[in-house]
Amino acid sequence: MQNVIERILNLLAFLLTVDRPVTADDIRHTVAGYARESDTAFHRTFERDKDLLRHLGIPIEREATDLFEVEFGYVVHDDRYALEDPDLTDEERTALALAVQAVGFGGRPSGQEALMKLGGAVGSLDGTELGADLGEQAEAVVTAFAAVSERRLLSFRYRGRERRAQPYGLVHRRGHWYLVAADAGSDDIKVYRLDRAHELTPGERPGAFTTPDGFDPAGAVLDHPWDAGRDPTVASVVFDEPVAWIAERELGPNAAIDRRADGSIKATVEIAAPSAFLGWLIGFEADAEIIDPPELRHSYLSLVGEG
Amino acid sequence: MTNSPKTASRINRLLAMLPWVIANPGAPVDEVCERFGYTRTDLVTDLNTVFVCGLPGYGPGDLMDASIDDDEVVVEMAEYFARPLRLTAPEALGILASGKAVQSSGSGGPALDRAIVKLEQILLPDGAEAVVVDLPEPSLAGDLRRASKGGEVVRIDHTSIASGERKVREIEPWSVFSTLGNWYVSGHCRTADAERVFRIDRIRAVVPTGEQFDARPASYQPAVRYTPSDEDARAIIRLEDSARWVAEYYPVDVLDDAVDGMTIRMSVGDPAVAARLLVRLGDTAKLVEGPEVALATAGLRDRILARYAGHT
Q1: CATH class of A2-81
Q2: Taking the domain A226-304, which CATH number applies?
């Protein structure tokens, strides 16, 4: 491992200072650590070293060494290599370190390497246990994040259809990552659950679009599954005392609550997707009853009576 | 031989440590170790490696200078490593989402708020608020966390999601945590005399008892698990095409998967869970096998219909 680390540091030092594309052959005869290898061994070693550097996020690019594009070499552009300094104070680094310690992704923390690149943290960090888990850092989420941060178009499959979208933002809500994006053709804002998106492919060009001023991705993700749809109807439902507090919490601030003497409530709420709402209502079993509108009451009874 | 992940993480740490040490000459060894998670021995090893590397020529004027002098870390002749490497997408998402999760839960502070704004400025276009983590902490989480930290037994008024059963339980709260969007309290339930996990949004009230409990087991790791057991009810369900989401949403075995639908086997601790699902799915699902679930489903239909019959 020692030799590998020395060779890679030498390779990177050379690429960062040479300031022009250099061929594999140049590297072989210039950088310490490669000279003694046979042709095949050299190519294997060099490929591995390049992979490792790219995996660390070092942008090694392949470019022509001359105008006629006869020969190609490797180059690292300084502006794409370096992190822009966010100018954090030690207090801010410690706050980030505590957050990294408290939040997991599928049981593992994520962000320690980032924190080191930002200068590491000092101060007492012990005793913070994993407080929140945001689920596996799935490849789709990482790819979508990269597209959002670089403003690349994103192509993917969703519910059996090919999509092409301008990714405006990512929202984590109720345990899922959502992508908020404008349709590349129609500019309609759509929300996709990333665990159901497949084959995400970012476009070639960074900065391919601009996000509208003041766009709020969180506002595009619906609070309840029954909010999705056009032509909402207003429903009123009675919840008996034992479950009234649960219904009130889950309906949230947009429902009008009428408290009654026996501890029950009558909730009035807008429903855009009736089937999603009825599905939720079944969880309350016989402790809830739709009062209005009669059509919704009727749909519920035929759903329940279907056995 | 491939380059191991260990090699990668060593280089990553080196490329993070060097810029900081170059920007902060005279940094004490202890501070460098703390910031970058080094032991003194590992730091010495890495500095010795740096000392023998540099630019082609590899003579005394070409190699970097790295050493410990009077307990201070010295790195010179290494200007090309003076700037930290940019964050990869997983690293950037990890640190930003972690910060935003803590901020959203309400347990952050002004330093975290400032740090997030600064990170957004370098990681996102125009510093926009393009990444949102919505993880509001339920109001009772604070009471439960205080009880957990103080080692105090509490009584909770809890309604089970699965069965709808309401019970006042005495618990020793070991930990308050959130996973996949829900908040939980876990600990020893004295009422059940067993380790249990409760969803906080199904707790109506928390009452302190004033009684202290012995410390939780040192090896304890909070987690929400569902492990099928022999006592579970099992059901085989035929799903129409439009009900396929069930197989993604619940832990099930897929027995048969065709264009027009699929057949799944589900294992549930309480038949009521499968009964609610079946009623909800209406004519897009059929129970193929599972006597306990059949009974629970029929009972659920009858109870709901009876309630509605009372008013018409």
Answers
A1: mainly alpha
A2: 3.30.70.240
DSSP reduced 3-state for B59: coil
Say yes or no: A1 contacts chain B, CB-CB below 8 A.
yes
Cβ within 8 Å of residue A280, ≥6 positions away: A224, A225, A226, A250
**pLDDT tens digits along B256-289:** 988 888 999 998 888 998 999 999 999 999 999 9
Provide the pLDDT for residue B1: 47
Minimal-distance CA residue of chain B relative to A208: B125
Interface test with A, best of B34, B64, B91, B246 (most A CBs within 10 A): B91
Residues 6+ apart with CB under 8 A from A95: B99, B108, B109, B111, B112, B115
Structure tokens at A293: 């509108």
Tally A–B CB contacts below 8 A. Answer: 341
Task: Name which of B81, B99, B123 is nearest A99 (Cβ-Cβ).
Answer: B99
Task: Please check whether residue A41 touches B, CB under 8 A.
Answer: no
pLDDT, tens only, B58-71 = 988 999 999 999 99
Nearest by CB to residue A48, choosing from B3, B118, B311, is B3
User: pTM for the whole thing?
Assistant: 0.86
Contacts of B219 in chain A (CB under 8 A): none
> Which secondary structure element, helix H or strand E, spans residue A298, and what is its range?
helix A294-304
Return the CATH number of B139-212, one of 2.30.30, 2.60.40, 1.10.10, 2.40.160.
2.30.30
- Domain A139-218 in CATH 2.60.300? The answer is no
* Residue B189: how many other CB atoms lie within 10 Å: 20
Spell out which residues of chain B touch residue A242, defining contact as CB-CB under 8 Å. Answer: 159, 166
Our measurement of the distance from residue A109's CA atom to the centroid of its chain's CA atoms, rounded to an integer in Å, reads 15
Distance CA A301, CA A281 (A): 12
> Helix, strand, coil proportions of chain A in percent (round to 5)?
40, 25, 35
